[in-house]
Backbone:
């Protein structure tokens, strides 16, 4: 397993850059050290370590840096975990608006590949398992990652209602859950099940089949 260099401000080349953090006076922070620490947290979670068992000391050892290096960047574990979750986020897909179905498939495929497969799935399961003990962590994750994706999905559904592609007598929030629910179920409840290619399109088509306006409604 690769580690950062023992010098707390020097890490091995090739690590993924970490997220930006509020500036501090003094010498500039090492982006490589940030990445080494974040990668260490991800490795520990992937190895099955719970948030409760993650100490700043253990994270420092895993990253190959000094404990002071970690504390210079993050005052505590919750702040560090927020940046870990942000590091897994990626810009959502560009929606061209030509078809509600195509935009929905793009959004769900983005979740399948970026948010719910691999590391994102392991992290999400770990956070949910500890949400009662650390509700502020879930609130921060929701505000920084979940909310933007949810609003994008609601925007597509409302556009579909406005242009007649989706019936208007159903709550958009509930419809959004119908589309995202199958991916969440596999990520959180049935993690042994695969999220194969084409899964997003299958979910979208199955749900749309039930929410498209019927001939009478369309004619009205």
Residues:
């Amino acid at each position: 397993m690769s580690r950062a260099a023992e010098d707390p401000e020097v890490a091995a080349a090739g690590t993924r850059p970490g997220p930006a953090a509020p500036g501090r006076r003094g010498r500039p922070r090492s982006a490589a050290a940030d990445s080494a620490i974040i990668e260490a947290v991800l490795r520990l979670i992937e190895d099955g370590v719970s948030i409760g068992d993650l100490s700043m000391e253990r994270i420092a050892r895993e990253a190959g840096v000094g404990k002071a290096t970690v504390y210079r960047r993050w005052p505590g574990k919750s702040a560090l975990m927020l940046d870990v979750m942000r590091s897994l986020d990626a810009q959502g897909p560009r929606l061209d608006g030509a078809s509600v179905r195509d935009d929905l498939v793009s959004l769900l495929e983005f979740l399948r590949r970026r948010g719910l497969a691999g590391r994102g799935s392991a992290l999400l399961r770990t956070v949910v398992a500890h949400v009662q003990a650390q509700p502020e962590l879930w609130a921060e994750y929701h505000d920084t990652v979940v909310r933007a994706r949810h609003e994008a999905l609601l925007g597509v559904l409302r556009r579909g209602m406005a242009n007649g592609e989706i019936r208007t007598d159903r709550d958009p929030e509930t419809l959004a859950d119908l589309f995202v629910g199958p991916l969440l179920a596999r990520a959180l409840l049935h993690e042994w099940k695969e999220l194969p290619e084409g899964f997003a399109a299958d979910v979208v088509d199955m749900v749309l089949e039930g929410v498209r306006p019927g001939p009478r409604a369309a004619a009205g």
Q: What stands out?
A: The longest helix spans residues 135-162. The CA atoms of residues 164 and 218 lie 7 Å apart. The mean pLDDT is 79. The two ends are 64 Å apart (CA to CA).
